[in-house]
């Protein structure tokens, strides 16, 4: 059985790998903010997505910057969803565009739930939007029977 060909390493044999240059992190973050996937970015550099992920995960500052870029990409994903629907041609194209837009909006919700997530507000209100009225009901006969029982004068 032939060995599987592995993609080039991030640092490459010469130490000048796909992301081993000044501004690499800025470029990656810009592309993520623009809505590109990690897989597409890695493929454009000739490496596997997992290698890009490991490169990002290797340093805390990279992880933080990429996480922020993902959150900021939510706006781009939302805009892409709208563009897909606006530019759809024919009923089949519109159906496909709706499905893609639905997925892009879902991604936006996952990446920035504060801005694009579903908001759930629960309020307990009474009649007319006012406060909830409570009422205490006391059974006097039961209370008197209890007192007689504990005092031994049953």
TrEMBL record:
Entry protein name: Uncharacterized protein
Source organism (scientific name): Pigmentiphaga daeguensis
InterPro entries with a match to the protein in the record: Sf6_terminase
Pfam families cross-referenced by the UniProt entry: Sf6_terminase
